[in-house]
Fold this sequence. Notes:
Helix content is 29%, strand content 26%. With 305 residues, the protein is an alpha+beta fold.
Amino acid sequence: MTWRTRSSLAWLREQPGVRENEPLASRTSFGIGGPADFFLELARADAIERTIDGCKQRGIPYLLLGAGTNLLIADRGVDGLVVRVVNRDHEIEGTRVRAGAGLKMMRLARIVADANLRGFEFAIGVPGTVGGAVYQDAGCWGKEIREVLLEVEGYLPGKGRQKWSPGVLNLGYRTSALREGALTGALVISATVQLERGDGEAAKQLMAKLTRERNETQPIKTKNCGSVFKNPPGDSAGRLVQAAGLKGAREGAAVVSTVHGNFIVNEGGATAADVRRLIERVMVEVKRRFGLQIEPEVEMVGRWK
C-alpha cells in the first residue's frame, strides 16, 4: 500500500518550511544522492516530534538526517520525508555536558576543552553530529562515545519522550538499538556525557596533534563519507584493502583513496551506483584474497533498484 494518498500529500505540503523534490547531495559529506520527496529542517524537538508522529499516523516513511556523514543516498533519492535535525544547543554543569543532537562532535570537542574538561578529545576526529554519533556509537583513535555517555533524551513515536541509558541503547561497534533494534525510527534529542576536570590547553594541544595526524593519513579535503568498512576483529579494513591492491581502484568517478584504503572518494560527479559497485567489488576481492568478509560501515538509504 502506498503512502501517497491525497490526504498524506496535502498534510506534507502544509508543513511550515517544507520543500518538495529537494536535492540532498549537498547535505552529505559524499556530495552524492538524489532528492528527498519532501524535506524539512527543524531545530525544535517538539516540532520534530509532531512531524514524525504525523508521518507514523499516515504511513509516510521518514529519514532523520544530521551532518550527512557515513551515509550513501541512492541516486533515485529518498521516499517520503527527510527531516534534517539542527538543534545545536548545549549546557555544561560541572563535568557533565548535555548537547543537542544537531551539534557537531568536532564543535563540542572544542567547547568542552574551552571549559577545561578532558576525555572528549577523540571527538575531534568524528565529523558527524552528536545524534549521529549516538546512532552508530561513533568514535576515533580507539575510543567510542559509549565510553563517556551517561544518558540520551529521545522520542519514540507513539510512546513519547524517553531517557535511554547506554545499556538500553545497546551500543556496540558502529551500531545501536537506534540503527538496528527496538528504537529504530526514534529521535535523539540530546545526549549527556560525563567528562573530567583537566587542563583545557593540554586538551587543545592533543586535539591539534590528532588533527595533524588525521590530515596526513586520511583524505580529509576530499568528498568522502568517512570510513567505508567496519574493521574486522583484530585487523584493519584499510590494511586489508591496501594488501588486496585496491588503492586507486575505480568505478566511474568513485575511487578508493590512495591515501587510506578505508576511504572512497568522490572525484566529482560520482553516483551512488558507482560507490556501491566499488564497495561490492572491494568486499569480493578481500574475501577472495584473505577469506575475510568485511562489512560496510556506511549506511545506504533511499530508493535502490
